[in-house]
Amino acid sequence: MQMPSPIDWGPGGSVRILDQTRLPGQEHIAELRTIAQVAQAITALRVRGAPLIGIAAAMGVAIGPARSVADVEESCRLLRATRPTAVNLGWALDRMLAAARAAGPGGGSLAAALRAEADAIWAEDVAMCEAIGEAGLPLLQGAGEVMTICNAGRLATGGIGTALAPVYLAHRQGQGIRVSVPETRPLLQGARLTAWELSRAGVQCTLITDGMIASRLARGGIACAIVGADRIAANGDTANKIGTYGLALLARAHGVPLYVAAPSSTFDGATPSGAGIPIEERAAAEVRGFGAAAAAPAEVAVWNPAFDVTPAELIAGYVTDRGLLGREDLPAFFAAAAA
Q1: Do 69 and 170 have their domain in common?
Q2: Which end of the chain is more exposed for a tag (fewer CB within 10 A), N or C?
Q3: Burial of 34 (0-12, 13-18, 19+ CB in 10 A)
Q4: Do 49 and 186 sit in the same domain of this protein?
Q5: How many CA within 13 A on the CB side of residue 253?
Q6: Which of 130, 154, 173 is the last residue in one of the domains?
Q7: 225-253: per-residue pLDDT in tens?
Q8: Which of the following is catalytic: 125, 230, 308, 321?
Q9: What sign for the dihedral angle of Cα 198, 200, 203, 205?
Q10: Domain that holds residue 221
Q11: Cross-strand partners of 226
Q12: Catalytic site residue 230?
């Protein structure tokens, strides 16, 4: 895939990220040397996507102060406050804190344990992405075109993506798969990121505005919709980028199945339903304009939730690293995860 890695280790104990706020116009690699810089990068969406946020947070802890377990606890506290909706963030930080406590106080042993755990989280995500791709590939057999929303591909994970993983595997097999890509207002992750990475990978895609989703589905030819997730509650309700709920309703109205693709780390058995998922609200400026261009009066009131919750009854299945699951499979899935 001809694109820079969204994250990597840098020289001298730093973390390098592909600054996603500058795409598609500029492929800028930013070097993060402090825990505060990692936290800012996550908050500002310079690095984004639930799995990649978890990896970035883990790497941030590894480059942060690590003289004692208390230092690691403070790093985790700072990073945990950056974005509340994506459960992968807390999952990764809990793992880093457990690794710190197991390693004991101070010195090289603590730093080495943190680096090893961050590497393990990253490597596991790479493997989970491949497994998600394999689990979702049968859904694309004979499919000419699928629809997604936001970005749940290479830019959002440590590997080949979640929602886009089956697409990339189908493309590798020469299936000629195509993707319909809504722009994803207000920050245009579909237009800026998904269309960019699919084009770079040689996958055919067509960009549409969010208001065109219903009309595109009505024309026919969309085999299914596949979306990512930031948190999946115990009953299957799913938080994902704002607009996913609308896509799910429109897909149901047009007889198009919608699947959620996510690694096991995105499933949150401690949250009974979508009503308990915290929804991040972001700055009004994101809706009033884009970049330096104003699109609305400066004084107009704005509501800007970053995510919505799609009820489980609108979801045809869950494409996971443990296979394709239906709602009826979720109780056993969560029980196995808790064992």
Answers
A1: no
A2: C
A3: middle
A4: no
A5: 13
A6: 130
A7: 999 999 999 999 999 999 999 999 999 99
A8: 230
A9: positive
A10: 131-338
A11: 259
A12: yes
